[in-house]
């Protein structure tokens, strides 16, 4: 015989289930969000995540689940910037380094070389920005796998922090093929997009404890393991390594190397005259026969057996392997995505830094190597 409807409504099991459901809703809506936020240790350092969006910016910020007014106010964090150093001996002075890489393709050789750097990983934070393209998504998956593997190692072998941004601007090129990337017709739009990506990455990841910023391209696959210390030992505000590319020379049937990064240069009267005749939105480009500038390029200053510590003052720099004192960026030097004195991106950065009183330098005999597609 079926149970009358009135009895089913008053069944004790129905009341118990209803009470459990109500309790669950109460916990979800009215519990304090502080349970989801990290605690602060007695020495003032954050655990796992930041408790607010700015303290410190190198850690992820978790938004509270509730919008009620019961949220505890964020703590006040003091940073004594006068105590921050950028010295010739960054390891002895425990100076933190932020390695920033715009990444459209992932090369395992890049990551392996990054792990071969012998600067203490506890002093290194990593930052990546990846375009929202199919190729970018593939790169993201490969990068994430390597990060997960490395950050699962014992504490001394992990990086201090890793930040990955997905680029919020349209990619101007449909492919990252080397030939397509370097077409002169693509340069202004491509490098403007690169400048925006660099600025987004820089402004998001550089924190108040960052001493140095190392810009390292995603296709740099070979550097000395002492790259950071070597560049910092010159105590220059901006300093660039010389970028070459290894390849198999069919003429000699043997391994060889050739010049690659042409953006490290000393200006010329010809380039200045060309710029003076250009429209305000036109840019000068290096390495194209259609636009001979006759600048002195650092790649051609390399000397066989030359001193790797030899310095030259530069007017333009590339971003393949570029070490910058964080105070230069804090002073306002960024990567113009527009024609700045007819220069753009990294070369425009060198010009902007010079206008702010910071000089750029290069090491013609200190080599890093680019992936050969």
Biggest beta sheet summary: 10 strands, mixed
User: What structural class do the secondary elements suggest?
Assistant: alpha/beta
Any idea what the CATH superfamily of the largest domain is called? Spore Coat Polysaccharide Biosynthesis Protein SpsA, Chain A
Number of domains: 2
Q: Estimate percent helicity.
A: 25-40%
Secondary-structure element string: HHEHEHEHHEEHEEEHEEEHHE
What is the count of DSSP helices, taking H or I runs of 4+ residues? 10
Strand content: 15-25%
CATH architecture name of the largest domain:
Alpha-Beta Complex
N- and C-termini, Cα separation: 80 Å
State the assembly state of the protein chains. Answer: single chain
Radius of gyration: 26 Å
Shape: globular
Name the CATH class of the largest domain: Alpha Beta
Outline the low-pLDDT stretches.
31-47
Question: How many beta-strand elements?
Answer: 12
CATH topological fold name of the largest domain: Spore Coat Polysaccharide Biosynthesis Protein SpsA, Chain A
| Mean pLDDT reading | 86
InterPro entries: Mannan_Polymerase_Subunit, Nucleotide-diphossugar_trans
GO molecular function, one term: alpha-1,6-mannosyltransferase activity
Organism: Delitschia confertaspora ATCC 74209
Transmembrane segments: 12-31
Describe the protein's architecture and organization.
The structure is a single chain. By secondary structure, the protein is of the alpha/beta class. It has two domains: 5-36; 86-370, Alpha-Beta Complex (Spore Coat Polysaccharide Biosynthesis Protein SpsA, Chain A). It has helices at 5-9, 12-30, 108-116, 134-151, 178-181, 187-205, 227-232, 269-276, 326-330, 345-355; strands spanning 96-102, 124-130, 161-166, 210-216, 220-222, 238-249, 254-259, 265-266, 296-297, 312-314, 321-325, 360-370. A hairpin with a 4-residue loop joins strand 6 and strand 7 (254-259). The longest helix has 19 residues, at 12-30. Belongs to the ANP1/MMN9/VAN1 family.
């Amino acid at each position: 015989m079926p149970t009358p409807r009135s009895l089913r409504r008053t069944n004790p099991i129905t009341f118990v289930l209803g009470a459990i459901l109500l309790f669950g809703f109460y916990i979800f809506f009215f519990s304090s969000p502080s349970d989801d936020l990290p605690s602060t240790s007695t020495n003032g350092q954050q655990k796992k995540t930041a408790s607010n969006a700015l303290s410190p910016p190198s850690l992820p910020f978790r938004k509270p689940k509730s919008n009620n007014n019961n949220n505890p106010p964020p703590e006040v964090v003091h940073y004594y910037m006068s105590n921050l150093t950028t010295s010739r001996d960054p390891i002895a002075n425990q100076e933190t380094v932020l390695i920033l890489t715009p990444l459209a393709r992932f090369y395992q050789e890049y990551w392996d070389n990054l792990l071969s750097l012998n600067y203490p990983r506890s002093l290194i934070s990593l930052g990546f920005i990846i375009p929202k393209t199919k190729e970018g998504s593939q790169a993201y998956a490969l990068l994430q796998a390597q990060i997960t593997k490395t950050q699962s190692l014992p504490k001394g072998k992990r990086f201090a922090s890793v930040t990955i941004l997905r680029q919020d601007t349209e990619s101007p090129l449909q492919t990252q093929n080397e030939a397509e990337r370097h077409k002169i017709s693509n340069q202004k739009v491509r490098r403007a997009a690169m400048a925006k990506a660099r600025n987004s990455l820089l402004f998001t990841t550089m924190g108040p404890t960052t001493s140095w910023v190392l810009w390292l391209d995603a296709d740099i696959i070979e550097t000395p393991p002492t790259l950071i210390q070597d560049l910092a030992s010159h105590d220059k505000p901006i300093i660039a390594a010389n970028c070459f590319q290894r390849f198999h020379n069919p003429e000699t049937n043997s391994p060889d190397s050739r010049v690659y990064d042409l953006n490290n240069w000393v200006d010329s009267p010809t380039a200045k005259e060309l710029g003076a005749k250009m429209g305000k939105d036109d840019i000068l480009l290096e390495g194209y026969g259609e636009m001979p500038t006759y600048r002195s390029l650092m790649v051609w200053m390399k000397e066989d057996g030359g001193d790797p510590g030899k310095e030259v003052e530069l007017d333009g720099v590339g971003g393949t392997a570029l070490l910058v004192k964080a105070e230069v960026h804090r002073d306002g030097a960024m990567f113009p995505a527009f024609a700045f004195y007819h220069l753009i991106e990294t070369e425009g950065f060198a010009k902007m830094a010079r206008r702010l009183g910071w000089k750029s330098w290069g090491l013609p005999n200190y080599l890093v190597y680019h992936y050969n597609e």
